[in-house]
Design a protein that fits this description.
about 325 residues; Rossmann fold; 8-stranded mixed sheet; 11 helices; 12 strands
C-alpha cells in the first residue's frame, strides 16, 4: 500500500537530524466529515542527506511538509528535530527554532512580498534575528548568498519580485531561506536553484517534495513514495528506481517519459482516480487501483517490511 509502521526508521543512527513519528493531519470538511490528509506517516532524515518525497497531486506531500514546520501543527504524532519535539514547542520557544528548519513554498511568487525590493526580502530575516556572531550571520552575507543562487545582488537592490521570472523567484526564495543559516530546508516542488553545489557549500540537509520522479532521482539520496496520505515505499533512491517493489511505485516509474526508462514498456498505466481522502478505502488505500489487489488488501492494512537487501522498505501484502 499505502501502509503504516516504523520498522524503516533508523533509530540506531546518531546522525538522524529530523524524525517524524506517526504523523496525522486531519481537517474538518463539513458536518461529521473529516479529510484524512496524512495518516500515520513516519520517516527520518540523516544530517547531510536529501530525502525525496514523491506522489500524485493530493497525496499529502505538501501537508506533510507544512506540518513539519508547524504550519499548522499536526493533529497527532511527533516531529523531532535535533532531539527536540517541535510539536511540544509553543510561542517564543518555537519561534527560536524556526531559523534552523526553513521551508521553500510551492508558489515562489506568491510567497514573496510584492512591495519590497528583492535585496530587502532576502535580508529581512537578519533584521528580525540580528547578527548570529560565530555563525557568520550578518547583512554582509546577503550579497554573497544572492550571488550563490545565480542572481545579481546589485540588481536585487532595485527590482521587486514581479520583475523576475518564476525560476528566478525560486532562487530568491532559496536565498531568503539560506540567509538564516538553516540546518534543514524543506522544498515544496522543484527548486531549480538548490543544486548540488549550493547544498554542499552551505552544508544543507534537504527534504525535496515533488510529483516528478525524474527530478527526485537526480537530487535525492533516499526516496519516500506517498499515496493518499500513506507511505508505500521508502529507502535508497537507486534501489527504488532500479527495482520498485510496490505496484504504485512501479506504475509511477513506468509513466516517466524517458527513452532509457526500463520500466516503461507501454503495457501498464495507472488507472482510475485518486479516492477521496474524506472516505479512503479500507485496508490498503491503493487497492482500488492496484492490478495485484486481493481480498486481504481490503481487510488488513499492510505494514512496512524489508524489501530485499540494503535500505529498501515496502508496505504491501504482495510486493513485486
Amino acid at each position: 500500500m499505502a501502509g503504516s509502521g516504523t520498522a524503516h526508521l533508523r533509530e540506531d543512527n546518531p546522525n538522524v537530524l529530523l524524525s517524524v513519528h506517526n504523523l496525522v493531519m486531519e481537517f474538518p470538511a463539513g458536518k461529521n466529515k473529516v479529510v484524512h490528509a496524512v495518516s500515520d506517516v513516519s520517516f527520518d532524515v540523516v544530517e547531510g542527506e536529501t530525502l525525496g518525497l514523491v506522489g500524485e497531486s493530493g497525496c499529502g506531500k505538501s501537508t506533510t511538509a507544512k506540518a513539519m514546520v508547524q504550519y499548522p501543527p499536526p493533529t497527532s504524532g511527533s516531529i523531532v528535530y535535533n532531539g527536540t519535539d517541535l510539536t511540544e514547542l509553543k510561542g517564543e520557544a518555537l519561534r527560536r527554532m524556526r531559523p534552523e528548519v526553513q521551508m521553500i513554498f510551492q508558489d515562489p511568487i506568491s510567497s514573496l512580498n510584492p512591495r519590497r525590493k528583492v535585496f530587502d526580502i532576502v535580508s529581512e530575516g537578519l533584521s528580525v534575528w540580528g547578527n548570529k556572531g560565530d555563525a557568520g550571520f550578518s547583512v554582509d552575507r546577503v550579497a554573497t548568498i544572492i550571488k550563490d543562487v545565480g542572481l545579481d545582488p546589485e540588481v536585487a537592490k532595485e527590482k521587486r519580485p514581479h520583475e523576475y521570472s518564476g525560476g528566478q523567484c525560486q532562487r530568491i526564495s532559496v536565498a531568503r531561506a539560506l540567509v538564516l543559516d538553516p540546518k534543514i530546508v524543506i522544498c515544496d516542488e522543484p527548486v531549480s536553484a538548490l543544486d548540488v553545489s549550493v547544498k554542499a557549500r552551505y552544508g544543507l540537509t534537504l527534504m525535496f517534495i515533488s510529483h516528478d520522479l525524474s527530478v527526485v532521482k537526480n537530487i535525492s539520496d533516499r526516496v519516500a513514495v506517498m499515496y493518499l496520505g500513506k507511505l508505500c515505499e521508502i529507502g535508497d533512491g537507486d534501489l527504488i528506481y532500479d527495482n520498485p517493489r510496490h505496484p504504485y511505485t512501479h506504475l509511477l516509474l513506468a509513466a516517466v517519459p524517458d527513452p532509457s526508462n526500463k520500466h516503461a514498456d507501454g503495457s501498464e498505466t495507472l488507472l482510475g482516480e485518486l479516492p477521496s481522502p474524506i472516505n479512503p478505502p479500507s485496508g490498503c488505500r491503493f487497492r482500488t487501483r492496484c492490478p495485484n489487489a486481493q481480498d486481504k488488501c481490503a481487510s488488513e492494512e499492510p505494514q512496512m517490511q524489508k524489501a530485499g537487501d540494503g535500505d529498501h522498505w515496502v508496505a504491501c501484502h504482495f510486493p513485486l
